[in-house]
Each structure stands twice: as C-alpha cells, then as structure tokens.
C-alpha cells in the first residue's frame, strides 16, 4: 500500500471519521439496504439469502444499526437489541468459504453503489474481511 493510502486509512480510523464519511445513520441504512437488495438479486448469493428470514426488514435494520457502531459511530444495534457477538450470532448457520465469499461479494457490489470515494470503499471492504473470516465456521 502506498504511503499516501496508509495515511488516508489512518485518518479513517480516527474517532468517528468512518461514520461521518459514510454519511452517518442515513449512510449506514443505505449501505445495508443496498447490500440486501444485491443479495436478493445475485445468483451467487441465493444460498445465503435463503439462510435469512423470508422478510428481510429486520435483517436490514440490524445490519444498518450494527454498521453504525462498527464504523465507530453510535452503538445503534446495542441501543435497540442489546449486545451482540457476531460469532455466536451466526453459529447456527453453516458458513464455509463459499458463503463468506458470497457475503463479501454482495458487500463489494453494495459498496460500488455508494457515493463514496474509491479509497473509502476499498477501506470498508478490507475492514469487513476480518469479521467475515471470523464468522466462517467451516471450510
Ligand atoms: C461471512 C458470511 C456471512 C453470512 C453468510 C451471514 C449470514 C447471516 C444470516 C443468515 C443472518 C440472519 C440470521 C437469522 O436471522 O437467523 C445474519 C445476521 C446478521 N449478520 Fe451476518 N452473515 C455473514 C457475515 C456478516 C458480517 C461480516 C457482519 C458484520 C460486519 C454481519 C452482520 C450481521 C448482523 C448484525 C446480523 C443480525 C444478528 C442478530 O441480531 O441476530 N454478518 N447474517
């Protein structure tokens, strides 16, 4: 990574910069809604779509609120639903590398739909690899 990009990523990590750059609560909701819109359409994500409840309203809400805290903004998920450990929240699901890749593909496509800089989109996609890998619970 270039020194310039490293500096930019360091800036994103400070305080709630990520949350602000993403457009705050509204930005988190847009990303989560675009993410699930993509998941509903993409053939590659059919399997993970069917792991979800038939009505995605609450999944959209939960992901949006989770993302706010994840971007160092307000803990909107916790305020409504209480504390969340991502691993245990997914442990009832069979998530191998194919399911992880499908999730990340939906996120990549959703990120492309945001009115954000390419650098910030790349930063978010990079950051999300870590929780996605931790959630993977089988090969
Ligand atoms: C690795 C691939 C992943 C798959 C296949 C996956 C799949 C799912 C599914 C099927 C649900 C609904 C569970 C249910 O209602 O029973 C869910 C919930 C959720 N997922 Fe994921 N997920 C993945 C990764 C992630 C990542 C990386 C994040 C956050 C960065 C995330 C955040 C959430 C949240 C916040 C919920 C709601 C949890 C709750 O309130 O119970 N997921 N996920």
Description:
- The protein is mainly alpha-helical and 139 residues long.
- It has one domain (3-135): Globin-like.
- It has 9 helices and no strands.
- It has helices at residues 3-13, 17-21, 24-41, 46-49, 57-70, 76-81, 86-90, 97-112, 118-135.
- Helix 3 (24-41) packs across helix 5 (57-70).
- The two termini are 29 Å apart.
- The mean pLDDT is 98.
- The chain binds protoporphyrin IX containing FE (HEM).
- Protoporphyrin IX containing FE binds next to helix 5, helix 7, helix 8 and helix 9.
Count of DSSP E strands? 0
State the helix count: 9
Shape descriptor reads globular
How do the SSEs run, as a string of H and E?
A: HHHHHHHHH
The profile of the biggest β sheet is: none
The low-pLDDT segments are: none
How many domains? The number is 1
Outline the fold blueprint.
Elements: H1 3-13, H2 17-21, H3 24-41, H4 46-49, H5 57-70, H6 76-81, H7 86-90, H8 97-112, H9 118-135
Helix pairs in contact: 3-5, 3-8, 8-9
Protoporphyrin IX containing FE binds next to helix 5, helix 7, helix 8 and helix 9.
Keywords:
mainly alpha; 139 residues; binds protoporphyrin IX containing FE; Globin-like
Task: Give a brief description.
With about 140 residues, this protein is mainly alpha-helical. It has 9 helices and no strands.
